[in-house]
Specification:
About 25% of the residues lie in helices and about 30% in strands. The chain has helices at about 5, 15-25, 70-80, and strands at about 30-35, 45-50, 55-60, 65-70, 85-90. The chain has a domain at about 25-90. A hairpin with a 4-residue loop joins β2 (about 45-50) and β3 (about 55-60). The protein has a five-stranded antiparallel β-sheet, with helices on one face. The protein is of the alpha+beta class. It is built from three helices and five strands, in the order ααββββαβ.
Length: about 100
Amino acid sequence: MDENNRRWSSGSDDEQRKVLEDLHGEPPARFAICEETDDCADSRVLGWGLAFDDEAVVVPTDGGLPNPFSGIKAALRLYGMVRRVRLVWVDPPDGRQLT
């Protein structure tokens, strides 16, 4: 790790994760809302999201502002009103029941 990155972090990644879990519970799981098309080459990510236990936040890839939702299902419903979409997990939710 170079000197520039060292000042922003102390301890190992495992130690940092443990501190965060102790203070704030489970970290959010990352996901993407992707447009489904018949040709995979035309598919694209519509938004990147963070799933918390009781809410989800999606940042649209078109430069829009982050959108809070009551959960992942609510985000999928909204994005699915205009396009055929699917959820792709970047981080598995590790058995958590995320809404």
